[in-house]
Write a structure and sequence with these properties.
Blueprint: H1 6-15, H2 23-33, H3 43-56, H4 63-72, H5 84-98, H6 103-115, H7 126-135, H8 143-156, H9 162-177, H10 186-204
Helix pairs in contact: 3-4, 3-7, 4-6, 4-7, 5-6, 9-10
Amino acid sequence: MTMINGAAWKRLWTELGAHTIDGGVFNQLVAAYSERHRHYHTLQHLRECLAHLDAAASLARRPAEVELALWFHDAIHDPRRDDNEERSADWAASAARAGGCAADVAQRIRSLVLATKTHQPASDDPDTRLLLDIDLAILGAAPARFAEYERQVRAEYAHVPEPDFRAARAHVLAGFAARPRIYGTDAFHDALESRARRNLEASLSAPG
C-alpha cells in the first residue's frame, strides 16, 4: 500500500528514473496538505487517492507518473483563487525536472494535474481518465463519507455566504450528474457510478 512517508517518496522517484530525490519537496507537500484552511483537500484526500491508485494501478500506462500527479494535484489550494491547478501543475513539472526526470515525463505530469481543473479529459489518454476517476471517487463514497466530504468542502468555503455557496455547489454537482458517465474507466464506472448518482441526487434534493 502506498503510504505518505519518505520511503514511498523515494521509491516513487526511483520508478520515475530521477537522479535526485528531494526530501524537501516531500516535506513541503505534507505541509501544504496540512494547511489550516484546508478541510477536504488534505492528507486524508491524498491518502484516499493513493489507495485507489494502489487498487487500480494495472489500469495505468505509466503508474508512477499518475502517482506523482496525485501527490501534486491539490498541492496548492487557495479557495479564494481560481488558478490552483495551474500553479500545482507548474510546481509538479518543476519538481520533476529538478529531480532529473525527462522533459516529456515532466510535461505529462503537468498535463495530468491540469486535467483536474475541469475533470474533462482533453484526450483519450488512459492515465488521464484514471487520475480523474480517482479524484472523483469521493462522489461514489459510502453515504457517511460523502456527507463528511460535503461538510469539509463547505468549511473550506466558509467565507462564501450560504446562498452563494449553495448555488455554486449545486451548479458543480449538477454538472457531474448531467454527464452520460461520471467515470471514464469501466472499473470505476462499474464500482462507483450508481452510488455516485445516488449521492448527487441526495445532495441536490436536500432542502436549502
